[in-house]
Write a structure and sequence with these properties.
heterodimer, A: five-stranded parallel sheet, 16 helices, 40% helix, 13% strand, B: 278 residues, five-stranded parallel sheet, 13 helices
Amino acid sequence: MLVDYFQTMREYRVPCSIREYLDLISALKNHLAFADLDDFYQISRICLVKDERHFDKFDKAFAHYFEGIDRLDEILTSAKGIPEDWMKSEFERLFSKEELEAIESQGGFDELMKKFRERLEEQEKRHRGGNKMIGTGGTSPFGADGFNPEGMRVEQGRSRHKKAIKVWEQRNYRNLDDDVELGIRNIKVALRRLRKFARQGAAEELDLDDTISSTANNAGFLDIKLVPERHNAVKVLLFFDIGGTMDPFVRICEELFSAAKTEFKHMETFYFHNCLYESVWKDNRRRSNERTQTWDILRKFTKDYKVVFIGDAMMAPYEVTHVGGSVEHWNDEPGSVWLERMKEHFSKVVWLNPVPDTQWGWSGSLNAIRDIMKDDMFPLTINGLEDAMRELSR
Amino acid sequence: MKFTGTEEYVATSELQMAVNAAITLQRPLLIKGEPGTGKTMLAEQLAEALGTPLIQWHIKSTTKAHQGLYEYDAVSRLRDSQLGNEGVKDISNYIKKGKLWEAFTGDKPPVLLIDEIDKADIEFPNDLLLELDKMEFFVYETQERIVAKHRPIIIITSNNEKELPDAFLRRCFFHYIDFPDKDTMQKIVDVHFPDIKKSLLAEAMDVFFDLRKVPGLKKKPSTSELVDWLKLLLADDVDPDTLRSKETAIPPLYGAMVKNEQDVELLQKLAFMSRRKG
């Protein structure tokens, strides 16, 4: 009964085991749901899914099983439905002043938008190459992976040149989903090195040795001595680079993220794009409206927090060194200033880089950041992790 | 035994389904959701609806799993032995029952609320696996096995501050209380304020949902804050028109809904900007 259903759930990586499956069967046996799809949806979600993180996967699997709804994303087609005002404001936010002027030279926003819409209308099939249609490659101002400096970038999974001047994507990556737990035992082991046991807090554990000696000193009358309990006192701040050049590495980052989540007592995660600037965000779905000021982080977290950056540090060099260098917004202070501030405030800062260290010599921005990090940049391998953790716990 | 919400508590059909599944299949029910969506309230109302006692176990960062079972007070026994007290021979005098023990031995199957389980140490849920599964535990000091007379209905709440281990999750049913939509919200308000003026309510709800949409708020107002705010509005007898003019100012008595000075500042800025626009 319902074996296929269960298999579909597993296929979509909803983490459910035989036990949950049997639960569902016995729930149905007890007539908690009968001949009603809505009820069945509810009861099977209650039984099979144990975390709201997996609701999305469950919904997709459910839809697939019952209606065979296709799994393709329809981002390009949905672009037709985007209201003009919204798009315009989005553009104004994304492009810098200079770029806006450059766009003006091609006939301005309205012209660009008009062209974009026309192309969308004209275009029916997926398009590659060429110099007019929206698609991948090519020199048209629209689409991804192109070479036109004034181009705008339409959703595309990963970029081939690893340098996109502007990224216009629907950045609704699901929040770094941490269901890759199993492949990463070794990362976990490396991170465990960071665990440091310290005694702090209220005294509440019996100190036997001290109690015996002080009871003896007290002429045999009981004198209880207590010590604070040991607990994991390592506090960590994680900063993930997300979007753009990091996309090919997102999977590795996810692994690291899921390994780290259970390891520390205090851990907070923030996201940034390419380089650290005046604000970061905690929830990637709401990155545009819920940002945290970097100053707030510097004020809120004490210097004993250990800071780990995870990013490939591959970007245009001016993104690190120049005012206004950011690809997404106007930054009043260069990224290097913010990195220096972090380095200054927190006593332990390391940068983990998924790019193999044999390739590090080739990127100017990488070396600029490495300079700021005072060589505390490590490749994202087991050895690199071990070195990084040794550095952090020193 | 079917739970369908109470006079004071509006339960969505999904929540009812989850609670009834947990009762029928005798599994703990794990409840998550935004703060203020009535997670703790659920246990209270469930106990009331079923007419059984409610046993509450509030978890703190220092709570240990065995404290829920029993505690052996060795220190006071030592002291008593020095003072030559009589009861010292019987070790069971120094065993204090915990909340789980209490729940296991009650006359009726009680509702046991384990509140904010994520506040405790990472090991805490793991230490309760067997107890929740078999509903029994062993007291080493007295060599006695405590088995539940009736399996209690267990409601566990979590605010998602820590990840719960898989083995633990597998033993629970799970329900995520979504933030109520406008209709459900209307019902909730009706339950709390049956005689609220219709127009005032409509305006207040608009303001409330608008406020939740303001980007960048550190803490979005939730159901319990809305209820508090409505209480204040009623007490102050605020005119619906005052609410309607929301374009020009921040909502009256906003202190009930916005509890963070940075948020207040943000709202004031926004209000100032919209006034200038106007």
